[in-house]
Structures are given as structure tokens and as C-alpha cells.
Amino acid sequence: MAIFMEEQTVIGKIRLGISACLLGEKVRYDGGHKLDRFITETLGRYVEFKPVCPEVECGLGIPREAMRLVGEIDHPRLQTIRSKIDYTQQMLTWAMNRVKELEADNLHGFIFKSNSPSSGMERVKVYDDKGIPVKKGVGLFARTFMEHFPLLPVEDEGRLHDPKLRENFIEAIFTFKRWRDTLAGGYNVRKLVDFHTRHKLLILSHSQAHYRQMGRLVAHGREQPVEALYSRYQQLLLESLRLKTTVKKHLNVLYHLLGYFKKELSGDEKQELLEIINHYQRGDVPLIVPLTLINHYVRKYQQPYLKEQYYLHPHPVELHLRF
């Protein structure tokens, strides 16, 4: 089992853009940092980071006066708090050039600094003309990045403390890395069919609608130019990965998996698995519990199709996910 899992998940370094302060770089306005040890010590074992500090890279010093977003929610200005100096255009001009440079890094995702007026991806405070904040803003660089790379997996370090959001992001970046590895070998329909076959149940756990749409696309793959086929498939893949998994979606996949053992499982084995799935449905045990038993049956009964399913091993077990 351990050998199989390693072959499934260790796929080379994933390239992530990241707010530089999260790596411990002392680039914040007060000369400090916001080192995140899960990111650097745990996730960092599998990731090559590409640090970005918008304020420093656009020409501001360390230390510097603190800034905040002011004005309209959708089009805020970046302004220093005390002296009211406006750095909006300086930041936006730099940001538009920087995202074009990042194209060359072929990133698999980005981790932003939460609540930052430049890098916060959501719920950033925007102050009105009376100085009253509303937590509905997006940092100027983060907005530019997400508009330029609309389907790339993104998160902030605050949201990564939520186990389910952490799992969703990590699953997305590992899947996208496998997709990029597939692209690196050139385009052909056979390779696409193989990738899709191995990821069917993982896609189903995110979106039944995308699962069906992607299945039809692959089934008729030879009816269109291969470049267009790959482009459309990538769009649907990344769209599906942005949709969060839920207990209900996982239950659908678990019962789907159970169907592959109709002839093999004894009555007691089937009853045990159904009971554990029920415990998961009620929230008594995490997802890893029924999946561990299913993986045992995959190995015991030599299910060749399920052995290839990334849903059962989407990322390294050392990341302690599958809640």
C-alpha cells in the first residue's frame, strides 16, 4: 500500500506564488514578517515557492507607513493611513507588469496574505469617507492576479487554517501539477483519456455536472482539434476544482466505490463498510476512516480500476488531510 501511495502522489515540486512575509521575509510595513510554519515546514516539502511582496517590489521602503484601502468597494484606492499619500496607480502599474512576468513561472497556485490591502484575496477592510470599514474588499495585487489567472487555485494563509479549505486547495494544486505534467509530454487523445480515467472520482467529488460534461468531452475527443480539446478540458478541470467538496458529494463517491465490490465483499464486510460510511455521514469520523477501509479492500481484492483512482490518494498522507 505505501509504495502505491508514494507512486501516486510524489510528482515533483509544485510551484506556488506566495506573499513573501509568509516565508519569514521581513518585508512588512513595520519591518516584521508573518511566518507560517505549516506553509514552510509541511507544505514546503512538496512546493517550490515564488515569493512576491507588492509593497516592496513596487518601490516602497522597509519600514514604511501603514496603508489601507479607501473609497469604493470594487475600485478602492490604496492610501497611507496618517499622511493620506495615494499609491494606487503606482501599485496597479507594477501589479499589471508583475502578473505578466509570473506567466513564465508556470505557477500551480498562489497563497496570499490575508487582510492585506495589496494581497488580501477577500474580506479586506475598505474605509469610506467617514473612516468606517466594510470587510468586502480585495487587495490591489490580489485582484490583478486573480483577474489575470482567473482559474488558478488561490488561497490565503488565514483560510488555510480551515481543514476543509486547506484540503480543497492542496488537492487542487496537486491535481493541476499532474495535469501540467500530462501537458508536458505533448497533446494526444489517448493521454487525455488516461488522465481523465484516473481522476473521474476526484472530479465527481467536486461537481457531478462537470464530471458528466468532461466525460462527454473526452468521449468525443477525436471529433475536434486536439489543442481545442485540451484547452476546454483544462478549463472544466480547474472550474470543478474550485467547487468545494461536501459530505454529500463524498457520500455519492463512497457509494459509487462500494458498487465495485458487489461480488467480492462478504456480508459482514459490506455491513462494516456501510456502518462506517454512516458514521462519516453523521460526522462521527473523518473521511479518512471509510477511505482507509476501501483502500484495504482495493488491495485485498485487487481492483485494477480503483488502484488508479487519484481520489483515493490525491496528495501525500504526510499532509494529514481527508476530513
TrEMBL record:
Ranges annotated as spanning the membrane: none
DUF1722 domain residues: 200-316
UniProt cross-references to Pfam families, sorted A to Z: 2-thiour_desulf (PF04463), DUF1722 (PF08349)
InterPro entries, alphabetized: 2-thiour_desulf (IPR007553), DUF1722 (IPR013560), UCP037004 (IPR017087)
Protein name: DUF1722 domain-containing protein
